[in-house]
Records
---
Amino acid sequence: FRLALIQLHVSAVKSDNLQRACGLVREASAKGAKLVALPECFNSPYGTQYFKEYAEKIPGESTQKLSEVAKECSVYLIGGSIPEEDGGKLYNTCTVFGPDGALLAKHRKVHLFDINVPGKIQFKESETLSPGNSFSMFDTPYCKVGLGICYDMRFAEMAQIYGQKGCQLLIYPGAFNMTTGPAHWELLQRGRAVDNQLYVATVSPARDEKASYVAWGHSTVVNPWGEVIAKAGAEETVVYTDIDLKKLAEIRQQIPILSQKRCDLYGVEMKK
């Protein structure tokens, strides 16, 4: 099946972001994509100072438009993420809609991005955001898909549990920056893919040098062998790739690590 990653240029005008995102979903559908994914914070600039201003309830304006365009185009739409307000708290939340427009999954970013690399970048999502507390998976006729958002990708245990639960594709809307992006963006994706013998796709906003937070870009798809099979540059674009589940099955048969794990010695478990 064909997967499309929309590396969107995000502006400060929410209505423009929504309109352009929906237009690119239509374009991807016309080119045969069955799963279409948007980037982290696709409807607003990324930054703790923006989350409250742009936050919405779910359902709300942005998710309603995602539902409508998923149904119009008959695609599975991974709606990147938006700032969500619920019960007085703010979350970084990804919604997924099916070809009938129904909400299939809602993933709140589990691991908040609180880092300090002296002289390069300091960021603290927990100043404004609350963490999600659950794994998020959804089924398609093609395969089961697991969701994470950006910083979630650094936590190998999360990906391992998705693999244990039968996911063959992991999708991470994310916005790595100009410090962590060159160093770890591709490396982490390849690690998660080869460790668990599954496909990993990441969807970044396009790079905007004038933004307060400059995203690395380079939306990427990695196969279960750890090979990069599709990759964007820094500009707004749509990345297409065909996901071959026969290749996944072959790799798991050739190197059967999943059946060779020493569960008598160690294990990773999902607690809730």
---
Amino acid sequence: EGPESFPPLRNEAAVRVLQGRMKGIQGHCNSCYMDVALFSLFSCTSVLDSMLFMPFPLCDRNVQGILRDEIVNPLRRTGFVRASSVMHLREQLTDKGQCSSFTNAEKDPEEFLNLIMQQILGIEPLLKLQSGGQKEQECYCYQIFMDKQEDLVVPDVQQLVERSFLSSDLKLVEIPSCFIIQMPRFGKEYKMFSKINPSLELDITDLLLDSPRECCLCGDVATLECS
């Protein structure tokens, strides 16, 4: 018999199971970067469920089992994950990684995702990006970098991704199977935006390399692109 699985929460079920006190992933000892990443990746979507079941080339089945049985399944079943379960995962990551501070220090979510996806599970990179005609680069998530924009008071994710790609002269080489996006910094010292509206759908037409698009003047297939 294979490992137990629970489907991601959708619509009314998501509201019923996840809303209220003592819901979500319990924080402890600077775990917020990992808590929010795990919640985003698994609570309401199955796009990355292969991480929980597939025997990848480098796959550490112990870490995979903790992730599935102690974090994702309880989150989807009851809407709550104890801090001790996340600490169990952090201890395993500390053992497997090159870094000894996964159990107590605040990290960048990208560092956590790279460690668990690349070094521990051996998943192929999810994104292929190209900047200004240079060699394409592969990665697991995209972090939004941009200067403060006075005209954006409460931006949505669509606006932030488009402006960030534009300012870095970036394009997606192909349509990604999963597009993990890290929002701009929001720490104790500095907040770029007090709020960001989540875009429930993301239009990546203008972000794709060599994608046929219509001319904004005549409506025919465009032959030139101006930023």
---
Amino acid sequence: DSVITVQLTEEDKVEDDVVFYLVFTGSTVQHCTSTRKINPGSLETISPGHDCCETVKVALCASREGHPVLVVAEESFQFVQDEAYDAAQFLATCAGNQQALNFTRFLDRSRPPAADVDFLDEKVALAFRHLKLPAEWNVLGADQSLTENIPRETLMHFAVRLGLLRLTWFLLQQPGGRGALSIHNNEGATPVSLALERGYQKLHQLLTEEEAREPDSWSTLSHTVHSGDYSVKHHRGLDVYLLTAEA
């Protein structure tokens, strides 16, 4: 969901009825994004979430009714894996792993500043949204035979303990997310009681209200619809669309 700006040359600044879009061609996946005109010489769009780290070819295309599609320019674009993606992958594999989840509790003792927590929350939650989680993935882990009466640490405890509002919202939408709210850890705390104990009012409201809305900070992000080998994203902030297709 990073913003990409495209600067047009003088000869490319054309009439208003021309529609520009970008095509990203990777080794196994292709993305097509619409653009928004900021002014006659600048366009904006959203970077697609890619499936691997690689350099892809990007083509700027122009479309006009009754005319063939024109490739205006081509450039290369590099996708990299950052620390937030590594953290999301690590946490996804931690679901149900008590040794790993207890290890993450050391973060609680360092208590990073609020600005750092907000940055961590946004980046890790975005990375989590991009992960291709297995169909059987569950917030509570793979062992579904465990009952609510067995005390254990969960991913939801981790997110709430650090006050990660966006990550908590994401986990609530996943299988096992709501079930995790009533599970006590070894200290007898549930995610709900942790939020209350630490004074996270917005987080407590999110966990206890049946019709709680998604955090305001998410309202401008992309909404994705999957269908087979295709997915369509609508980024509400810029009002641009992104089509991803597996080659």
---
Amino acid sequence: MMCCFLVVFFLGMEKVVVCPYKRPNALYRLICFPWAGGGTSQLAQWGKLFSSSVEVCSVRLPGRESRHKEPFAKDMATVVNEITSALLKELQEKPFAFFGHSFGSYISFAVALHLKEKYGLEPFHLFLSGAHAPHSEAFLPIKMVSISDTKDEDVLKYIEILGGTPSELLQSEDIKEHLILTFREDLRVLQTLSFEKAERNIPFSCDITCFNGSEDKSHDVEAWHDLTSGDISYYELPGGHFYLLEPSNEIFLTKHITKCIENAGL
């Protein structure tokens, strides 16, 4: 019976968490959360760029890649509960940090908050990229976008402006259609994120590092300072919203994150 449970557990984890460069003897785990419409292909590959002390995984949401036949999640609570269930045992074993970009930053925040409130677990470092603090006024317009009234061509134009999607992929009608649908559904999930910072309540004690592209729209990263009693730092790297896909920026990010992790003194 226990054997069957373990098989189901690991299959469930492999479905939600992708870790192509497994390092069972690593001292730390870095869990990555991809952007809206994105999958695991880019961030999961970071595993080969880190030292042997860090095991890198990326979460995979329903509706994409090997989960493309599954229905999309309808709200942030569903996403958070699934990721937490898949990762909880792993996160109890050794220190962990989160990295999220854009939509992924908000998911990583929501998962971290749930872990802290329900299980007393906390990442020792949050690395957040291209995102407003969720309690800031700058985040409100995202929640006001009418998804159902937005035309497909307008969604596609926004995706093209953001960058990050190879132009050859957009030549395929099937891929383009699925990308638009995935982006819509991820935005729908993001709009269900509800967080109001209570006065004098600082949810985290971990360090937070915020990254942003120099040519991207400005994000209210200063407000992340309100959410932790730990240290906070900000870095602006050359490029637009998907600055992190530039090889030179990717090298900076992985080296800087490695340094932060290995210097955490845990």
